[in-house]
Specification:
mainly alpha, 71% helix
Length: 101
């Protein structure tokens, strides 16, 4: 379940990137995927491998004090989702920075 939440976090991040694209005229999803496939592949591999490492070592996160009451019961799942969102953003920006020189 944690990996699914992580993948959903990555998916949501890329949907937000897609929605906030600069050129909204004559846009093609296939072109966008072709243009961003390296970032998508690296972020997906990095996030899934990190989640496998965390799950295989049975790491648990105590985030109850940082989360609103309605999310406290889903602490580990929320953490997996946030890892997907935050690491996607950090990795995407780092890759774009390296590509630009």
């Amino acid at each position: 379940m944690k990996i699914i939440m992580n993948i959903l976090g990555v998916f949501i991040y890329f949907l937000i990137r897609y929605e906030n694209r600069k050129n909204k005229m004559n846009f093609n999803v296939r072109f966008w995927i072709k243009d961003n496939w390296v970032e998508i592949a690296l972020i997906g591999a990095f996030d899934v491998s990190l989640m496998i490492l965390l799950i295989s070592n049975d790491v648990s996160f105590e985030m109850a004090e940082f989360l609103p009451a309605f999310l406290q019961d889903a602490g580990d799942l929320t953490t997996a989702w946030l890892i997907g969102m935050v690491l996607s953003s950090a990795c995407y920006n780092a890759i774009k920075k390296v590509k630009k020189g």
